[in-house]
Amino acid sequence: MHTEEVQKWTRREFLKTSSAAAVAVGMGGIGMSVASVEAQEAAAPVPAGERIVLGFIGVAGRGSGLMNAFMAHEDVEVGAICDVYDEHLNAALERAGGQAKGYKDFRKLLEQKDIDAVVVATPPHWHALISIHACEAGKDVYCEKPMCLYPAEGRAMAKAARNNDRVTQIGTQVHAGDNFRRAVEIVRSGMLGKIMSTRVICTLNEYPGGIGHPADSEPPEGLDWDMWCGPASLVPFNTARFQSGCHRYFKQYAGSWLNELGPHIADLAFWALELGEPTAVSASGGRFVADDISDIPDTMDVLWEYPGMTLNWIHTSGNSYNFDFGGPPNRGRRLGVMFHGTKGTLLADYGSHRIVSEADALKDVPPPEPSIPSSPGHEREFLDAIKTREQPPCNFDYHLPLATALNLGHIALDTGRKLYWDSKKGEIVGDREANGLIRPKCRKPWKLPKA
Question: Measured in whole angstroms, how far is the alpha carbon of residue 321 from the centre of its chain?
Answer without folding.
Answer: 27
